[in-house]
Amino acid sequence: MLSCKSLLWKRKRTKNKTKNELRSKTNGIKQNLISEKYQSEGEDEEINEGFSLKASAPSHTHGVRPLGNFYLNSSSVNSRNTGLGNLQTLTDELVIDILGLLGATHLGVLATVSKSFYVFTNHEPLWRNLVLENLSGGFIFKGSWKLTYIATCYPSFDAMNIGLSCLRVRDFYSDYLFQSWLCANLEMKPEWLERDNIIRKKGISVEEFVSNFEEPNKPVLLEGCIDNWAALQKWDRDYLVKLSGDLHFSVGPVEMKLENYFRYSDQVREERPLYLFDPKFAEKVPRLGSEYEVPVYFREDLFGLLGNERPDYRWIIIGPAGSGSSFHIDPNSTSAWNAVIKGSKKWVLFPPDVTPPGVHPSPDGAEVACPVSIIEWFMNFYGATKTWKKKPIECVCKAGEVIFVPNGWWHLVINLEESVAITQNYVSRSNLLNVLDFLQRPNANELVSGTKDRVNLYEKFKNTFEASFPGTIDQLMRKAEEKRAEEKKPSFWDSVTDSKAGAFKFSF
Ligand SMILES: O=C(O)CCC(=O)C(=O)O
């Protein structure tokens, strides 16, 4: 999912040790518990540990089963190994990575070599990459990525009727491939949605917002502050499709017509559905820009002083149930607000000093290794938050509600149904110093995002700001220094207690 706001969204797919560890350690255990039902035809919807599959989820297309079942099975053949020959010693992930170097024709030829190669070469993410790399956004989704590729590149070949990609293979065991299918088909567990500990506010003043939430850098869910948006009433699918016509929007690494994106999102069953995340929507369709307005709490946006040179700052976000944003921190140390117009989103947020379980930022903060998909994070790490040092803030944000995401907070978001949202990142006086500090880091050229001129953004922004508000930066710095000193100073009661303790010591 590279439809990202920030570098921090870029997942390491190569050398992603974390990912391998996740798949083998934790899933090995869970998948061994997958019920016997899945050892047969897999038509049932209930699986162990309270997980359940989405309604009408198909069983694994090629009959792949979790590895644990191999050890329980009396016939000791794993056709995964026999069909790979000498390559059987490679991990599944490595086999997939190697196949990822091939084109469609070679994948097609290899599929005929053995049952094992048939299963591996039909792995949908391989075909997804081929479509996105070769066809860009110019495809009409045909229910699977392989069919989409074939239908687009070989229109006279009737792949649908030949049943090209549906052969089931017996005795093929692989946690890696099974996991990918499972994550694409799992329903969110009710207990993942239960915790709702965010503060909700309706009708508070801007001053209250600033002093209780923005200054102390705490999330809040704001109700009722976008009730006047035309978007809330108007933005259904038909309206959006009609307004945008043939224009293309950013969807992961490609640009797609909205109509085609909806066609895809209606049919898709994959672990990481493509997410529409477009920073230029209001320039492309000015009407969209005029049918919402920045809620009153976020009107001070100092990056605005940069005019056209400001980094990307607003996005329309559209995605089906299961799509979303995996753990990241927002770009350039900005804060953000996110308003849901249609649908609903589950949020999990951790404060800047707590790295979420299963998430491993690189020391320079430029990259983050995390589970392959959001649902995988819930399966394997959500439970750990129950005993985590600081509990995350969580909520479900519904249509008409706005969440404030303070700067530096880790957050993950999953759409619980098809959703449409607007988000904006901004800089106010409360986080101006953080932003300036971020922009002048030594590796700013890697960290700063949303603009071509990453290295000079600090100078440009500082100078422009000083020209408009002379002396304000110094003032803010003095205030921050005083605050730090205040925080260091022991409170009256601490000092009383300390001196008493001292007095006791000496008197004994
Ligand atoms: O998927 C979403 O709506 C959340 C987007 C997000 O996390 C972000 O814009 O930083």
UniProtKB/TrEMBL annotation:
Keywords: Iron, Metal-binding, Nucleus, Oxidoreductase. Its cofactor is Fe(2+). Coiled coil: none annotated. PROSITE patterns: JMJC (PS51184). Residues 283-443 form the JmjC domain. SMART domains: JmjC. The keyword Transport does not apply. Its main location: nucleus. One of its GO terms (cellular component) is nucleus. It holds the Pfam family F-box-like. It is found in: Nucleus. One of its GO terms (molecular function) is metal ion binding. Belongs to the JARID1 histone demethylase family. This is JmjC domain-containing protein. It comes from Cannabis sativa. The gene is LOC115701192.
